[in-house]
Amino acid sequence: MQPEATEPEEDSVWEEPPSMLWGLDPMFNAFNRLYVKDILHMREPCQVSGIYFYNSHPIFKVDVLGTVVYKREREDFFCYGVDDGTGVINSLCWKDEQWREQGDPATLWARSFGSSAREDFNPASELKKLLQAQRSSSHLEIGELLRVRGPVKTSRQQREIMASTYYKVSDPVMAVQISWMMEVPQLYRQCYDNPFHLDSSAQNPNIQGGSASYLLGRATRILKDFLKEKEVTRFRPYDVQDLLQPLVSRQPQKTASEQEPEAGPSSGPPTSFQQLRELLQKSLQILQDEGLVFRKVKCEDEVYHVTERDKDLLMAVRDILGEDCRREKYEGKGCHILHILSSVRQRYSRNVSKAALVLVLKALECNSDIISTSDSHYTIL
């Protein structure tokens, strides 16, 4: 179940971030479960070789599960062609030293562990079984399932994986492959297809904006923790305002000479209340952009609803799917997410965002109320 392909960024609008900032992206040091097609088409940077970019994320290690479609064996390594359904990539899998040891198992045991052993325990026999099991898990034939993890390299103008870990996967009922196909699209939606942006404060930590960006991140995390721990269904800004007060209190105030000139002669430095209010509004906007909260009605009385705990919203989405999926047009594949979003905005609230709807659909799917038939279609159970 592969997500819709993301169009590569145009060279004219995509700017490669400085290499010293790549480590700020959590994907940089992770084994990323990318599709082979995307691995083969990742962008090569201009600054450092051996690193690649997918949707502005710096990547050099991947995790792939696929079927062996060809193999080549040499004295020191295997070369497997791994097909995950989107493409084929070479995987260079180095043999363990035991592969090259041709001596008697008893000699290998004595060389490694000495001669001490219990009389009822045959170390040579056990070592032989262990070596056979190890060789069986790393020696694959065409048609078998292989999982390989390691850095991506370009050799002779061809992308390949230099395996740091690889093994044969026993999957008689396809449980591993089904789990993999369910998890990878989620990773694309939540991580890979969301570009990693660095604001000006991160790219230049010497400017004053650096502390503002740090404060905003701290404030957003505090609000998320509050919503998770208290399990509130709705709240108003003044309900959470005091949670951010310590962040503003710790900030050093600018002197008069440090203040930027304002348009009006009577303007002065912002008060702590103004700073707190601005910080709160920006944090709430981030929560809305991520779909964690939404405002059902936009009026002077600011009431924020917690998306995943709004029972009325959950019921509205479930009812929409229950009604529309009975129609002949949606009976087979189900309703597209944009159709559901349009119906929710007509029947429930015009302010529900797509990000909020995604969280609702995920919650309903976890409760086995609905099921996804594709990356963007859902139907009622």
Biggest sheet statistics: 5 strands, mixed, barrel
- Give the % helix: 25-40%
Structural class: alpha+beta
Give the CA-based shape.
globular
The secondary-structure element order is HEEEEEHHHEEEHHHEHHHEEHEHHEE
Q: DSSP strand (E) fraction?
A: 15-25%
Strand order of the largest sheet: 3-4-5-7-6
Ends apart, CA distance between termini: 19 Å
Q: Give the radius of gyration.
A: 28 Å
Low-pLDDT windows of residues: 1-13, 200-210, 254-269
Mean pLDDT: 80
- Total count of strands: 14
Figure out the total of helices.
Answer: 13
What are its keywords?
381 residues; alpha+beta; three-stranded antiparallel sheet; 13 helices; 14 strands; 38% helix; globular; disordered N terminus
